[in-house]
Amino acid sequence: MAAAGSTSLSPSQAEEPPKLSDLLDRGWKLYEEVDTTNDPIAATHIQVKIKRGITQLEEATRMVAQLDLFSRNEELEEVATTDLKYLMLPVLLGALTMKQVNLAKRLEQVQIAKCYFLDFLKRCKEYNISKFELPKTNENSAGTLEEESANGPPKPPDLIAMATVRAAKIERYTQRKNTEAKLSEIKAAVDSGQADDEIVRDFYLLNLRKWIVVSLEEIESIDQEIEILTRMDVLKQSSAEPSQSKRPPMKPFILTKDAVQARVFGAGYPSLPTMSVDDWYEQHRKKNALPDQGIPRSTEDVDAEEREQEEKEKRVENDDEEALQKARDWDNWKDTHQRGYGNRKNMG
User: Fold this and answer.
1) How would residue 185 be classed by pLDDT, with cut points 50, 70 and 90?
2) pLDDT tens digits, residue range 90-133?
3) Residue 176's pLDDT band (boundaries 50, 70, 90)?
């Protein structure tokens, strides 16, 4: 009981706010844990760490603003070694914000992260920590697009500019690798607390230079993601608009027994039946034009053929030599020729 009473904290000690250095160290450590973990970034416990780290770093940022640690009128040599690490607050906030997983707020998150990275780069540019060019802002990009549209059709890509960008990326990559190699050499001494002020200062400057390269790469990636997310929002809005407007139902086409139907089911397509076989036969019966072997004949043609046949039979019966000879020749010809011989009308 006595031991427990000796370790208890008074209310004033329990409510004591955390120190600025502790807030930065906790947020920095949480970022390193999240960045090096093998667990899925969308896991609940990882997202909890990210939010906790953001909270710690945001509180540290407010305290730095209240203390007014940095001034635009001072040089890098005038900044105390213990204060150099607080220049990393915005870039750590940007890196943790990029690791948040929320599709509904993704566009907002990447825009916030870009503001953090730009703020970090501007501060490093003011202190001349490293030589680099600030990325173009949205305003500059919009102005460039307006000028290009006013000047006419887009110009072909500038190969020299593309080669310059590629060379800059290679240089940044080499610079980052060299910086990380130097950091790994002195990190153990700084963490142990045995490094002198010069080594500690060099350690923080190397971290700032490494994060400058990271920030430039992150902003390029963010610009591409913002463009994709913006287009996705436009597509969602455009696809949602037609569903809201109700169009009248389309009337079906009704095909009738007339020339319209003949045009639709014309050459190359089987026609639809317009009447039954009985209806067709009855229609021809009323007109006295019943078909014979598929060829309809009128009543006059039938009567003429019957009269001609009767006359032939009468001539044969009266022993007409000419008629008898023709009948014999016709019988002989049929004996030596098949039926249909010489009929060129039905040739296939």
Assistant:
1) confident
2) 999 999 999 999 988 999 999 999 999 999 999 999 999 988 88
3) confident
Question: What pLDDT was estimated at residue 250?
Answer: 57
- Dig out the tokens for 138 from the structure: 């949205």
Distances from the Cα of 122 to the Cα of 115, 126, 131, 135, 205, angstroms? 11, 6, 12, 10, 15
Per-residue pLDDT reduced to its tens digit, 190-241: 888 888 999 999 999 999 999 999 999 999 999 999 999 999 888 888 776 6
Question: Quick one: DSSP state of residue 295?
Answer: E
Classify residue 103 by its DSSP letter. G
DSSP 129: -
The pLDDT tens digits of the residues spanning 17-34 come to: 789 999 999 999 999 999
Among candidate residues 208, 188, 210, the one with its CA nearest the CA of residue 199 = 188
The set of long-range contacts for 13-22, using a CB threshold of 8 Å and a minimum separation of 24, is 18/59, 20/60, 20/63, 20/64, 20/67, 20/86, 21/82
Q: Is 240 exposed, middle or buried (0-12, 13-18, 19+ CB in 10 A)?
A: exposed
**In which residue are the tokens 């950091």 written?**
183
Given a contact cutoff of 8 angstroms between Cβ atoms, the answer to whether 175 and 212 are in contact is no
Distance of CA 271 to CAs 84, 256, 263, 276, Å? 90, 12, 10, 13
- Distance in angstroms (rounded) separating the CA atoms of residues 59 and 67: 13
Distance of alpha carbon 252 from alpha carbon 291, whole angstroms: 39
Per DSSP, which regions of 233-312 are E strands?
A: 291-292, 295-296
If one counts every other C-beta atom within 10 angstroms of the C-beta of residue 170, the result is: 10
Kindly give, in sequence order, each residue whose CB lies less than 8 Å from that of residue 106, ignoring residues fewer than 6 positions away: 229
